[in-house]
């Protein structure tokens, strides 16, 4: 199977900010890993934010944060 990542989705993920809670306004990449692990255990929210949080959880547990940081650097954007 050949998996091709969607560049625009990765850019959006790199620049998306937490819309609620204790970490409101932080980039998802800056959320503490235990917070994402908690969501993974309790259940991610429905919709777009749930998908993005789940994606960020996978990125963090697999040690791929540097890829997201590089995307932030290479593709600067205003707040989404």
3D architecture notes:
With 80 residues, the protein is an all-alpha fold. 55% of the residues lie in helices and 0% in strands. The chain contains four helices and no strands. Helix 2 crosses helix 3. The protein is globular and about 30 Å long. The termini are far apart. The model has no long low-confidence stretch (mean pLDDT 92).
Please give the number of β-strands: 0
Please tell me the overall pLDDT: 92
- What is the helical fraction, as a range of percent? 55-70%
Give the overall silhouette.
Answer: globular
| Tally of helical runs | 4
Point out poorly predicted stretches.
Answer: none
Structural class, please?
Answer: mainly alpha
**What's the SSE pattern?**
HHHH
How far apart, in Å, are the first and last alpha carbons? 32 Å
Beta-strand residue percentage: under 5%
Which radius of gyration do the C-alpha atoms yield?
12 Å
Largest sheet features: none
Please render the helix and strand layout as text.
Blueprint: H1 7-15, H2 33-42, H3 47-61, H4 65-74
Helix pairs in contact: 1-4, 2-3
Task: For this entry, give a set of tags.
80 residues; 55% helix
Q: Outline of this structure?
A:
The chain is mainly alpha-helical and 80 residues long. Helix content is 55%, strand content 0%. It is globular and about 30 Å long.
């Amino acid at each position: 199977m050949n998996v091709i990542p969607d560049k625009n989705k990765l850019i959006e993920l790199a620049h998306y900010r937490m819309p609620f809670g204790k970490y409101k306004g932080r980039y998802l990449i800056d959320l503490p890993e235990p917070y994402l692990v908690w969501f993974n255990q309790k259940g991610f929210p429905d919709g777009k934010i749930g998908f993005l949080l789940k994606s960020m959880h996978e990125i963090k547990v697999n040690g791929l944060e540097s890829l997201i940081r590089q995307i932030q650097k290479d593709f600067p954007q205003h707040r989404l």
